[in-house]
Write a structure and sequence with these properties.
Layout: H1 2-31, H2 45-52, E1 55-65, H3 85-94, E2 103-116, E3 121-124, H4 126-129, E4 134-138, E5 144-153, E6 158-163, E7 186-191, E8 199-210, E9 220-223, E10 235-237, E11 243-250, E12 261-265, H5 266-279, E13 285-286, E14 289-293, H6 296-301, E15 310-315, E16 331-335, E17 338-339, H7 345-351, E18 358-365, E19 368-375, E20 377-378, H8 379-388, E21 407-410, E22 413-417, H9 420-426, E23 435-440, H10 445-448, E24 456-460, E25 463-464, H11 468-480, E26 485-491, E27 497-503
Antiparallel strand pairs: 1-2, 1-4, 2-3, 3-6, 4-5, 5-6, 7-8, 7-10, 8-9, 9-12, 10-11, 11-12, 13-20, 14-15, 15-16, 16-17, 16-18, 18-19, 21-22, 22-23, 23-24, 24-25, 24-26, 26-27
Length: about 500
């Protein structure tokens, strides 16, 4: 079937070539003076020949224990003397003895590249070598070397391996600057698609700064250079032979290339690789804040001219800024001199900063621009703190039992005092203060924003509220100012904060 397909394609090529030759002869006088277009770069053969030796195939094996259960395939019950008995006996014995708890070897293939020939350092994707028992690096000249794991980073999907280069001369490549690459620049991918071995493909950079929701620091280069299964961990080169990306993902309904591939930019990868080589782990900067996007509604509610930056929705207790330097409701617009245009920009630039570094943070607080200096902690330590606490409480603690209004209806919500009865009914933590939402009208503005009974309104337009009257007064004041939306800071029953905007028309 496959051979027939190839033959048909060849026949079409021959016929097309003959037809083209006839047409070219008949119209030659008309187009003799035309300048041939320059479609793509000149031959990349010299560049490919120089780089192929540095790109490696990575094969891994993992021992998987056989298990009973829904995923296990039972040995079929065959009639005595069945001619298929030997076949099934052989198949199931190889799989671990009729699923009786035996084990089997699972193998996988990927790509990588050498960045240090003397030390034998190889870079690849974490998912290529994850959970592997054995890792082998296969070079283009046929040599195979055992590899040891130096370190991995699951957040960026990068792994660093080491082989012993004694007796084998390695070829290395260098990282280039991905920040200088532009949409439309030519790039070359080399890898091990479908286990075929060193394969070269060429394309352009189709897009930059792609977020494919694969991790907290998504900032992928998109390319139409053919990338398939097995290319993972391989390099994406610029036309100077520098690695400006690590191929890591594709979008494909069929599993094959459709011209949408993604590479980790070298600007992000270099720091991770250096840390893995030096420490065997990552040591990222940590600010200790919870953030959410600044939408147009939130920007309008805060009196900002444009929707940009990262809105601080909470502070991690015990974190670097748990001293009031940064507060919930602040909008961070610049970090260490780098613009924060979108929320997702902040985690990346903070993580790329050294632990213990003192940095300037520019922010907007209650309509005023200001700069504060903070000293960064270590993200890996911060994750333990963040995991141990359910959330950060509002800044004002306690409740006001002298409220003039016990309950009220506003913006589709019924609100009431946060007294002992309300805390008991909704299971609200004792250190949360504000006004409790007791009911939300169906199809109301509050319902559209996902507000639920039991949530607590702690601030409106960055002003604390403690009673239903406070809420009514703040809403009235915003309407008098001509505001279209009200910015509410809500606390869950455990104290986790979030901001929502509600229409007031």
């Amino acid at each position: 079937m496959t051979n027939k397909t190839l033959v048909r394609a060849a026949r079409r090529t021959v016929v097309a070539a003959a037809t083209a030759a006839m047409l070219a002869t008949s119209v030659a006088p008309v187009f003799a003076q035309a300048t041939p277009p320059t479609n793509g770069p000149a031959s990349v053969a010299d560049l490919a020949q120089k780089l192929l030796g540095a790109v490696v195939n990575i094969s891994t094996s993992q021992t998987v224990k056989g298990t009973e259960g829904p995923g296990a395939v039972p040995m079929p019950q065959l009639p005595e003397g069945s001619p298929f008995q030997d076949f099934f006996d052989d198949f199931f014995n190889k799989r671990g003895g009729d699923n009786d708890g035996g084990s089997q070897k699972v193998q996988s293939l990927g790509s990588g590249f050498v960045i240090d020939a003397e030390q034998g350092i190889v870079v690849t994707n974490n998912h290529v070598i994850a959970d592997a028992d054995d890792i082998e690096v296969n070079f283009s000249d046929g040599v195979t070397l055992k590899a040891t794991l130096v370190g991995t980073d699951t957040k960026t999907d990068i792994a660093v391996l080491k082989v012993d280069p004694k007796g084998h001369k390695l070829t290395a490549v260098k990282f280039g600057d991905s920040n200088t690459m532009r949409i439309g620049d030519w790039v070359m991918a080399i890898g091990n698609p479908f286990g075929l071995g060193g394969t070269v493909t060429v394309g352009i950079i189709s897009a930059r700064n792609r977020d494919i929701n694969s991790g907290p620091y998504d900032d992928f280069i998109q390319t139409d250079a053919a990338i398939n299964r097995g290319n993972s961990g391989g390099p994406l080169f610029n036309m100077n032979g520098e690695v400006i990306g690590i191929n890591t993902a594709i979008i494909s309904p069929s599993g094959g290339s459709i011209g949408i591939g993604f590479s980790i930019p070298s600007q992000l990868a270099v720091g991770v690789v250096d840390q893995l080589r030096q420490y065997g782990e990552t040591r990222r900067g940590w600010l200790g804040v919870r953030i959410q996007p600044v939408t147009d509604d939130i920007a309008e509610s805060l009196g900002m001219k444009e929707a940009k930056g990262a809105l601080v929705a909470g502070i991690i207790k015990g974190g670097p800024v748990d001293n009031g330097q940064i507060q919930p409701g602040d909008v961070i617009t610049k970090f260490d001199g780098k613009e924060i245009d979108e929320m997702r920009d902040l985690p990346r630039v903070v993580a790329e900063s050294p632990v213990g570094k003192a940095v300037d943070v520019e922010l907007v607080r209650k309509g005023k621009e200001m700069t504060v200096q903070v000293t960064l902690g270590r993200l890996e330590d911060g994750e333990k703190l963040a995991g141990s606490e359910e959330g950060a409480a509002g800044e004002d603690n306690g409740s006001d039992n002298g409220a003039e209004v016990a309950t009220a209806s506003v913006l589709g919500m019924t609100i009431g005092e946060l007294n002992d009865d309300a805390r008991s009914k909704f299971g609200i933590a004792p250190d949360i203060s504000g006004v409790v939402v007791t009911d939300v009208a169906k199809d109301s503005a509050a319902a559209e924003r996902g507000i639920q009974p039991g949530e607590v309104i702690t601030e409106i337009a960055q002003e604390s509220v403690k009673t239903p009257k406070d809420v009514m007064d703040r809403i009235g004041a915003l309407k008098e100012q001509g505001r279209k939306n009200a910015l509410l800071m809500l606390a869950s029953k455990t104290g986790e904060l979030r901001f929502v905007t509600i229409r007031m028309d």
